[in-house]
Amino acid sequence: MSDNRSPLPRWVLLALLVTGIIAISFSSIFIRWSHAPSSVMAMYRLFFTAVLMGPFVWRSKPDLKALSSSDWGLMAVSGLFLALHFLFWMESLAFTSVASSTIILALEPILILAGAYWLFKERTTRKAVLGLAVAILGASLIGWGDIGISGRALTGDLLSLAGTAAVALHLLVGQRLASRVPSLFYSFFIFLVAGTAFLIYNLARGTALGGYPTREWGIFLLLAVVPTVFGHVLFNWLLQYVNAVTVSMSVLGEPVGATILAYLLLDEKLTLTQGAAGLVIIWGVWYFMRHNQVRYAVEEADKPVKHKKAASGPSVTG
Fold first, then answer.
1. CA angle, corner 76, sides to 69 and 177, nearest 5?
2. pLDDT in tens, 223-254
3. Are residues 312 and 175 in contact, defined by beta-carbon separation less than 8 angstroms?
4. Angle, nearest 10°, between helix axes 98-105 and 272-292?
5. First and final C-alpha spacing in the chain
6. I need a surface site. Which of 2, 60, 129, 258 has the fewest CB within 10 A?
7. Which residue intervals of 206-271 are DSSP H helices?
8. Alpha carbon of 42 to those of 39, 254, 314: distances in Å?
C-alpha cells in the first residue's frame, strides 16, 4: 500500500462516508427479509465477501512471509470473535426491534475503551468517561423499555449487547495486528476464518446448508455486497485518507439509518422510550469520541496512515 496517496476532496470523503453508513444500515433489513437461520446467513455473507475480495487480495501481493506464527494465531482468534459477533447480533434481530438492536451496537466504542483500559492500560479523559456513563444509561433505558414489551425483546437486547462485546474483542485483537498485517489481507483472512467457524457450527447442529429458494440466495449475496463490501470494506479503504476516529463516527449513523429503513420497509414503529434512549446513547457516544480522540490525534500527527489501525477500524459491525 502506498503511503504517498493524494488526498481526496472533502466532498468525496463525505459522499463515501454517507454511502458506507447507508450500506451498513441495510444489514438488519436484509436479515429481517430472510427466513434462513442466522448462522447460514452469516456463513454465506462471509464466504461470498471473501470470494469477491479474493482477486483484489491476489493483486495486492501481500508479504505473508513477514507474519509470525503468533500473528496467524491472533488473526484466527480475531476471526472467531467476528463469528461470535455475527451469531449474536444477527440472532438478536429475531427477538427485538431493529431500532433497539442497532442502537445497542453504538456502544461499540465504549466497550473498546473498557477493553483497551483492561488489556493495554490505555487512559482517557474525564469528559470521555462522562460520555461513556451517559451512553450506558441510554442502553439501560432501552432494556428497561423492552422489559415492558416482553422478555423476548429483552433477550434480543442482551444478544445484541453480547454481539457488540464480541466485535469489541475482535477489534482489540486487530489493534495488536494493525501495524504488521496488510488491511486487505487481514479482512479477507478473518472473513474466511469466521465463515469456516460458521460452517463447522452449522454442520455440528445439522443445519441445512442448501435447498434454499432463489430469493434467499439473493439476500445472502446482498448481505455480502451492500453492508459488507460497500460498507465495512469501504470504511477500511477510507482509513488510507482519514484517521480511525473519523471513520468510527459512522457507528452513530447506523442506528439512525437502520431505524428509518425499518420504518419505511418493515413498518416498524419507534417507541418514545427507544427514541429517547437512542438520542441519549448517540449523544453519549459522540461526546465520548469527541473527547477521547485527542490521544489519536497526538499519535497520528506526524505519521502517514499505513496499515495502522486498519485492522481495528469499524469493519465488522452490522
1. 65
2. 999 998 898 778 767 766 765 555 665 666 77
3. yes
4. 10
5. 27
6. 2
7. 214-223, 234-238, 244-248, 253-265
8. 5, 19, 18
